[in-house]
Amino acid sequence: MLILSLMEHSAGLLIGGEWRTAPSWSEVRSPWDSAVVGRVGRAGPEQVDAAVRAAEHGFDLVAGLPAAERARLLRRASALVAERRERFAAAIIAESGKPRRHAAAEVDRAVETLRLSSEEAGRLHGETVPLDAAPGSARRRGYFIRVPLGVVGAITPFNFPLNLVCHKVGPALAAGNSIVLKPASATPLTALLLGQVFIEAGLPPGALNIVTGPGPAVGLPLVRDIRVRLITFTGSAAVGETIRTESGLRRTALELGANCGAIVDETADLDAALERCLAGGFAYSGQVCIHTQRLYLHTAIADEFTRRFVERARALACGDPADPATEVGPMINRAAVEAALELVRSAVEAGAELLCGGTAENNLMHPTVLARVGPELPVVCEETFAPVVTVETFKDFDSGLAMFNRGSSAGTRDYGLACGVFTSDLNRAFRATERLAVGNVYVNDSATFRADLAPYGGVRDSGTGREGPRFAVEQMTDIRMVSFNLGD
Length: 488
What we know:
There is one protein chain. This protein is an alpha/beta fold. The chain has 15 helices and 22 strands. The strands form 6 sheets. A 7-stranded mixed sheet has the order 14-17-18-13-12-19-20, sandwiched between helices. Strands 9-8-7-10-11-21 form a 6-stranded mixed sheet, sandwiched between helices. Helix 9 crosses helix 10. The longest helix is centred in the first third of the chain and has 22 residues. The protein is globular.
C-alpha cells in the first residue's frame, strides 16, 4: 500500500508551503515484511538551502502572528490529527513496525502535545526587573520579554515518528519560530502527513519545511547552516556529539541515548511493579530511549519476581504489528536485530544466564531476559535499544541505588536519563530522588514513563536541555531586556 498517496504528484519535500520534487526517490519499507509502503524524496544540500531560505521568510510571517493566532493554528492541527487518527496510526505501523496498540497511543499523545503547545503560545511572557534595587538605578524601570530565535532545525528519530516530531514542531511554532524538519530516513511518511495537516490548518508558507534524506546529505548541511539558530535533536549520543561539534556556538537541545532501569525493593507492590516493568522492558521491542533495560531486585523478592517476569515475557504475543493482539512487533531493521543478538551472545559467553529469548525470526526478536550479569557487560552498560532486560540483585536499598549509578557509567558512555523506583517506604523514595544520577526519577513506575507536559531529558551523555512544550519554548526563545531611564 502507498501510505503517502497525497504525495503521488511529487517527491514530497515541503518547502515554502509547497510540495516540491527532489533529485531522486527513496523507498520506505515495512520492517515486518519488507513491503514498499511509500516513496519519498531524497534531498541534498541544495534542497536544504532552499528549505532554510524558505524558513527565513516563514519566520517573518509566523513571528508576526499574534499569540492567539499561533495558538489557533496549533489547536486546528491538533484537531486534524485527531480526525485522522486511523490514517496516522496506519502510517506509523507500516513504516516503523510499531504494534497497533502503541501506534494508536502515539497518535493520541501527539494530539495532546500539539494542544499543550497551543496553550504555551499564549503563555509567552517576561517579568519586571527591580532595577531600582541596584545602586545608581533608582530612576530606572525594567522588564524582559521572550522573543523567538528564528529558524529552528529539527532532526527526529524513527521510534516515535509522530509525537517526537510534534514535540519539536509544536513548541517552535508556539514560540514564533519557523522550522526545518529532517525526519528519520526509516520513518519519514508520518512526518509528511503531519506537514499536510499544517498546510490545511493555515500555517504561513515556510513556517514548517520538511526535507527527507540521509543524514550526511540533509542533516549535516542543516546543522552547519549558520542561519539555523537552534538545532533540536533526538537520537544517539554519537550523533549528538557530532551535532555539538558541527553547530559551533549556536544553541542545541539534545535528547540522547541511555540505559535506563528500575529498582524494586522488598516493600514494593510486586503485581504493580511487574506490570510496569514488563511494559517498560518490551514495549515497541525496547526501541525507546527510556526502555527499562536493567532491573535491580531486592534478594527477598528477586526469585519470585524474576520467575513471574520471565513467564510473562515468554507469553507476550509477538507478530504482525497490524494485528491488534500483537504486543511485540519487529525491530526497525535486520542490522538492529543482529546488534542486539550479539550483545546477548557476548553476555552469555561472559557467564550471564539466558532465562528466555535470545532468538529472532527475520526482524522480530523475542523478548529476552538475562541474569547473573555485571555492570561491565555491554548488555548492561551500553544502550541495547532492543527487547532485552537484565536482572541483578541487591541486599539493601542503598546498594541498589549505587548499583544503578555504577551501571549507568561503566561503559563507553556516562548515561543518566531515567530510573524507576518501586517501594512503599517514603524515606527510601526521597533518598532515591536525591542519589540517582539521572534526569528523571519515577517512584512506583518504570523508567518507561513520560507525561508530555513534563520537563523531559537527561544529564551527562544522555543529553542537554529539556523537552515538554513549556520547557522547549523556553529554549526556543531569547530573553530581551528592556530598561527605561526616567531621568532625575
